[in-house]
Amino acid sequence: MRMNFFRRSLAAGAALLALFAAPAFAQQEVKLGAFVTLSGVSADVGAQMKAGIEVAVESLQPTYTVNGVKTPIQVIWYDDEGKGDTGLNVVTRALTVDKITAGVGFLSSDVFTRVMDEFQKASTPIVTCCSASLGIGKKIAENKMQYVFQLSPTANDIATSVVAAVATLEKPTKVAMLNENTDAGHDFSRIAQEWLKANAPNIQVVADEFVPRGVPDLTPQLAKFKRLGAQAIVGEVYGTAAPVYFRQWNELRVPALIAHMGTSASADSFVAEHGKEMEGSLVNVRWIPGKYTDVSEPMIEAYKKKTGFSPSTFAVQAHDAALVTLQAISNAGSTDPAKIAAALESGKFIAAWGERKFTPLAEGHRMPVNTIVVQIQDGKKAVVYPENVAAAQGSKYRPVPPWAWEKK
Question: For the Leucine-binding protein domain, which residue ranges apply (predicted)?
Answer without folding.
Answer: 29-379
